[in-house]
Write a structure and sequence with these properties.
Blueprint: E1 5-6, E2 30-38, E3 42-49, E4 55-62, H1 69-84, E5 93-98, E6 102-108, H2 115-119, H3 126-145, E7 148-149, E8 158-160, E9 166-168, E10 175-176, E11 190-191, H4 198-201, H5 208-225, H6 235-244, H7 255-264, H8 275-280, H9 282-285, E12 331-332, H10 334-337, E13 347-352, H11 356-369, E14 373-379, E15 382-389, E16 392-402, E17 408-416, H12 419-434, H13 437-444
Parallel strand pairs: 1-5
Antiparallel strand pairs: 2-3, 3-4, 4-6, 5-6, 7-10, 8-9, 11-12, 13-17, 14-15, 15-16, 16-17
Helix pairs in contact: 3-5, 11-12
């Protein structure tokens, strides 16, 4: 199991290299350069190994900002995953070091930047898109072979090296086979909204390999079309499009590519194309040559010293992908689907398997119980509870959205009145009614 080496940086000064900070090298090895990016818990710097002049990227994680054991477990899982992956199209982890206050990931420096930045300037030709897609599938297939599922594949997490070759990065939201439950599926709701597979939205569990293939399909569409296949300013509308597989290919796409995309973006994971089938597809195979490499070629690319204080937790531990948002621009969708999430000042979103009619009926009963209140219909599945309290008007709006065939999302918002009153009515009246808790209690009584 991988662990973290506790090291104290030496105080002895070292000569600075041009363009780098004139301070003592970290651990006597690395001089920090410019800041490449930052999140809530981590910053990434360009750095240089003073021993050989090699450029590296160093992700610095502040231990003091890691408030939970689960987050530390996730960091260690990311280390474990990256250490086991040695592929020419995957960013390499060279070593992991730590002091009492910080953890340092020393990574391969990929100086070409994100693929997203390149495609943002204009769509690619099919040949160029095919080249990048072939490299992506080579890397993703390798990950799956070793029981690793990325779960946040998108152009922002694909880098280009100086030769124009693709490198998959950011395994902060990845899962391993150890996390698969007894039903054979993963259940953590995570990913980036526009790239998330429809089965993740169904809340019934999913195959990690299948959702990665879906994301690869979205990426291929973006590369060749120059825009997202599923996109809408309204998040619920976008999710409905994803769930139904509603997209249109531009006229300039070849018929072979359109056919290929239809298999990648198949909303049924059972019939969606597999990695092996992708590699046999006529559109994909054109000019494809699987790179030959040997894992021993990468044997010196990562560090293996450890300390007993940072033992890797058992792979079956329960983890919340939300903790890893700071290391990825992806979104954990768990909060969106929490069946009993807590209100944030003026609004809350609940999810439940119930018909819109039943939900509205339950809210109607609540309105009858609130003194000086009435119910007003605002749209097909939208209502407002309006009333007077303490000499002032209050309005609570409620909208029901059909996310999937049997899953509804209920948005409850304060539209007038005090926040305190909104929270009181929500906690004591609306939440129990919407979730059917009052009915359950009466039946039990």
């Amino acid at each position: 199991m991988p662990e973290i080496e506790e090291v104290s940086a030496p105080a002895a000064p070292a000569p600075a290299l041009s363009g780098f900070i004139a301070e003592s090298p970290l651990f006597g090895k690395y001089e920090l350069g410019r800041l490449l990016g930052c999140g809530a818990f981590a910053k990434v710097y360009h750095a240089r190994d003073v021993r050989n002049g090699q450029s590296v990227a160093i992700k610095v994680i502040n231990k003091k900002k890691i408030s939970s054991a689960s987050l530390m477990s996730n960091i260690k899982r990311e280390i474990s995953i990256m250490r086991r992956l040695r592929h020419p199209n995957i960013v390499r982890l060279y070593e992991v070091l730590a002091t009492k206050s910080k953890i340092y990931f020393v990574l391969e420096f990929v100086k070409g930047g994100e693929l997203f930045g390149k495609v943002a300037k204009g769509r690619f030709t099919e040949n160029l898109s095919r080249k990048y897609f072939q490299q992506l599938i080579s890397a993703v297939g390798y990950c799956h072979m070793y029981g690793v599922f990325h779960r946040d594949l998108k152009p922002e997490n694909l880098l280009l090296d100086e030769n124009g070759d693709l490198k998959v990065s950011d395994f902060g939201l990845s899962a391993v086979t150890d996390q698969v439950r007894e039903d054979g599926f993963l259940h953590t709701l995570c990913g980036t909204p526009a790239y998330v597979a429809p089965e993740i939205l169904s809340k019934k569990g999913y195959d990690g390999a299948k959702v990665d293939v879906w994301s690869c399909g979205v990426i291929l569409f973006v590369l060749t079309a120059g825009y997202l296949p599923f996109n809408d300013p309204n998040l619920m509308t976008m999710y409905r499009k994803i769930y139904k597989g509603e997209y249109r290919c531009p006229k300039w796409m070849s018929s072979d590519l359109k056919r290929f995309l239809s298999r990648l973006l198949d909303t049924n994971p059972a019939t969606r194309i597999t990695i092996d089938e992708i590699k046999r597809d006529p559109w994909f195979k054109k000019g494809f040559k699987e790179k030959k490499f040997y894992e021993e070629d990468f044997a010196d690319c990562y560090y293996d010293k450890v300390s007993k204080d940072d033992q890797m937790v058992d792979g079956s531990s329960s983890l919340n992908a939300f903790d890893l948002i700071s290391f990825s621009s992806g979104l954990d969708l768990s909060a969106l689907f929490d069946e009993a999430s807590s209100p944030k000042e003026d609004s809350v979103r609940l999810a439940l398997k119930e018909s819109p009619e039943v939900i509205i009926d339950r809210v109607s009963e609540v309105a009858k119980e609130v003194e000086n209140a009435r119910l007003k219909k605002t749209k097909d599945w939208g209502v407002e509870i309006q009333g007077l309290r303490d000499g002032g008007k209050f309005v609570i709006g409620l909208d029901v959205h059909r996310l999937t065939e049997d899953l509804m999302v209920v948005d409850v918002k304060r539209r007038a009145g005090t926040t305190g009153l909104f929270l009181e009515l929500f906690e004591k009246k609306l939440r129990p009614a919407i979730l059917g808790e009052q009915r359950q209690e009466s039946q039990q009584a």
